Amino acid sequence: MAIIDVQQVTKVFGPDPDSVLPLLQQKWSKERIYRETKHTVGVNEVSFSVQPGEIFVIMGLSGSGKSTLVRLLNRLIDPTHGKIEIHGKDIVRMNAEELRQVRRQTISMVFQKFALFPHRTVAQNVEYGLEVQGVEKKARRDKALESLRLVGLQDWADSLPSQLSGGMQQRVGLARALANDPDILLMDEAFSALDPLIRKDMQDELLELQETMKKTIIFITHDLDEALRIGDRIALMKDGSVVQIGKPEEIMMNPANAYVERFVEDVD
Ligand code: ADP
Ligand code: MG
User: Fold this and answer.
1) 24 near 45, Cβ under 8 Å?
2) Phi, psi angle pair for 102, to nearest 5°
3) Which ligand has the shortest distance to the CA of 11?
4) Transmembrane residues, as ranges (predicted)?
C-alpha cells in the first residue's frame, strides 16, 4: 500500500479560493487567473502516490509549486480541493491530536536554510524536537548521538553550529529530522544552498544512508541532475501541475512533451 496518496490536489491562494476552481476546470492559465481574479494557483490537480522506502523527487523551476506541495503534505496549509492520505488516513480530516501525532512520529522536515540555533550545541540542536515533546534528558541525548552517528558527526556533538562547515550544518539538519525516527522525510531544496562539490557528497551520503534506513523521502529540487541522481521516481512540475512522473530513465528516454524535452536536453 502507498504510504502517501495525493489525489487531485489543488491549492489556490487569495480571498476566495473556491471561486477559482471552476476557472481551472475551464483550463484558464495561472497567468490569466492572476490577471483577472488576483488569485495565485500554487498547485493544480496534482495526483501521485509514493511507496514506502521510495525516494520520490519533485522537481520544477522556481514558482512551479514544489514548496506549496510540501506544505500541503505536512498540513501546514490546507488544500482548496483534493485528498491527501498518509498511511491511508486523510490528513485534512485529522483532528489536532492526530495531526500532532503525525508530525511527531511520521513526518520530519529538512530545510534549505539549516535553521540551527546558534547558541545551542550540535547535539542540543538535534535534541530540540524531542525536548519539545517532553522526552527526558538522557533518552534524548542518546537519540541525538545515535542520529549524529548516522550522519557521521558524532565527534561534533558538543561543538557549536558556527564551528561547522555548510555541508556539516546541513547534516545536523538531517540528523535533527531523523531524531524522532520518522517514516517520511520531506527535504525541500535541502542541498540547494551548498557548493556543487559538497552537494554531490551530500547526495551520495543520502543514498548511502537510505540503503540502511529505508525512509520514504520526498526530495524537492529545481536541479534535474540532482533529481536524476537521487530519485527512484521523479515528478516534474510546471505552473502548479505535474507534467510527467516516471523513473529517471523514463524521463530521459521518453519526455512526455516539449517542456520536459527542453529540460532533458540541458543535462550533461
Ligand atoms: P516553488 O517552491 O516551486 O518555487 P512555490 O510552491 O513556493 O514554488 O510557489 C508556487 C506559486 O504559489 C508561486 O506562484 C507563489 O508565488 C505562490 N504562493 C506560494 N505561497 C503563497 C502564499 N502564501 N500566498 C500567495 N501565493 C503563494
Ligand atoms: Mg520552493
Assistant:
1) yes
2) -60, -45
3) 1
4) none
**Residue 44 CB–ligand 1 contact under 6 Å:** no
Surrounding ion ligand 2 within 5 Å at CB are 66-67
Q: What whole-number distance in Å separates Cα of residue 248 and Cα of residue 268? A: 14
* pTM for the model: 0.94
Cell triple for 168: 556539516
Cβ atoms within 10 Å, residue 144 = 26
ipTM higher than threshold 0.95: yes
Ligand 1 contact via 13 beta carbon (within 6 Å): yes
Q: Kindly give the pairing relationship between strand 184-188 and strand 216-221.
A: parallel
Q: Which of 115, 170, 175, 120 is nearest to 144 (CA)?
A: 175
Q: Which ligand is nearest to the CA of 15?
A: 1
For ligand 1, say whether the CB of 67 is within 6 Å of any of its atoms: yes
Would you give per-residue pLDDT tens digits along the chain (268 residues)? 899 999 999 999 999 999 999 999 999 999 999 999 999 999 999 999 999 999 999 999 999 999 999 999 999 999 999 999 999 999 999 999 999 889 888 999 998 776 899 999 999 999 998 998 889 999 999 999 999 999 999 999 999 999 999 889 999 999 999 998 999 999 999 998 888 888 999 999 999 999 998 999 999 999 999 999 999 999 999 999 999 999 999 999 998 888 888 888 876 6
Closest CA to 50 of 191, 215, 221, 202: 215
Tell me if 66 CB under 6 Å of ligand 1. yes
Q: Which residue has the cell 557549536?
A: 160
| 17 in contact with ligand 1, CB cutoff 6 A | no
